[in-house]
Amino acid sequence: MGASCRMPNYLRPTWFMTARRWIAAALAILLTAALGIALLKHKTRSSTKRQVETTGYRPWKKRKLEFNKQIAPIVYSNCAKCHYPGSAAPFALTSYREVRNHARAIARVLGRGLMPPWKPERGFGEFLGNNSLADQEKGMIKQWLAEGCREGNPSKRPVPPKPPPQWPLGEPDDILRMSERFKIPADGNDIYRCFVIPTNYAEDRYVQAVDIVPGNPRVVHHIINYVDTSGGGRARELAEGGSGFSAFGALGFPIVGGLGGWAPGSTPYPLNDGVGYFLPKGADIIMQVHYHPTGKEETDQSRVGLYFCNQPVDKRLRIMPVAVPPKVLRIPAGESNCVFWAEQQIPGDITVLRILPHMHLVGREIAGSAILPNGSFVPIVQINNWDFRWQNFYTFKTPLHLPAGSRVRLEARFDNSSGNPRNPNNPPKLVKFGVGTNDEMCVLWLFYTVDSEMLTLNAPAPSNYLDSWTNFVWGKLSAGRK
Fold this sequence. Notes:
Layout: H1 7-10, H2 13-30, H3 67-78, H4 96-101, H5 103-112, H6 135-146, E1 174-177, E2 182-184, E3 191-198, E4 205-213, E5 220-228, H7 232-240, E6 245-246, E7 257-262, E8 275-279, E9 284-291, E10 298-300, E11 303-308, E12 315-316, E13 318-323, E14 330-331, E15 338-345, E16 350-358, E17 363-371, E18 377-383, E19 394-402, E20 407-414, E21 431-432, E22 443-450, E23 477-481
Parallel strand pairs: 8-12
Antiparallel strand pairs: 1-11, 2-10, 3-6, 3-9, 4-8, 4-11, 5-7, 5-9, 13-22, 14-21, 15-20, 15-23, 16-19, 16-22, 17-18, 17-20
Helix pairs in contact: 3-6, 5-6
């Protein structure tokens, strides 16, 4: 059962204007909030499907596991970076007593694969900041919990980790913040609020790193920054007559780029030397904040720290979406195994630094891979248990080089049945592309540089590499449903 969307059709002006709007909308949702491949557990055989073997758990001798010797190092390395006093996490995990008191909750989230909230599967790409647990580590914690949480010799107790510094990369070159404190009510639905932060820079700047400090981690779920040169953010704020404006999906005006994001436990990573985010002069930063009510009235005034490039910049960080287009993305009510694909051919040599997968609530699995011109298969990412609440940027430990002619492939499975606990519709309804929570999208963004670009030598990227968040019509794109 297939649908196909070929590149020549996409070059029609009416379609391209629609495409610009839906890609901009996709970014507004996608960034709300910063790998052979066993792509999908669907019945249809995938050309990129692979299997990864795991060793499983080798049990310890009974009642030999102790917190101070074996369990604390695992918890402190993978859990305490988010679960520390005063953090956004619901409780701290920096002592034996804290871990023991939450033993039941820990067992539950480990068993369901909910924590730690690292979604990419091991063996399908190597990313910075991976806080997932290996099978042996999970098994050790489960066995320790089942055997009564032995503390062990106090003299073997490791030193609890210190909370991360406010600015892990050091004092930023510039710190921008929301103009005033925003009030979050005690109860109600989650809030997506956008705040306009003028930069007032008189000249174009290049940014090497972005860090975000939430003003109130108890209530801030995640933050994403956009770059606006249209004045659209100011107009929407003025129209609503208050601090910022509401927007879950499309912002309602074009954006020219993104400028980092924050989620609990995220770590800011500088771009490579010679690479920078382009920040046009006079641009506004639109800070989109996802708030989660805590049961009491809260306030927040979050900040963004910018670290400017202090060396000549040769390459701009660019963005390429591999996406299932709106006319193709239709998920019938009741279908639990609805699989879509999209494939983009690369016109020239590029280097991928980061990726960002995105779906909404009926998305269940998503994966990306590349086929090189010589036929080699390169896994990019695989997420078997998609959760809209924990989408994130993923930065490669080693940048991924893709030569001209490579094909980047996206595959995703959607479950629009009543058996999907995240399905927003009961009974299920037809779900189509859209910017709302109950609509769907299917995108894999590649954050990349053009190998031939050397700005210091007056060698810009070729014209078929448009520096645009909405640029996905270069090369050959095809998409469909299996």
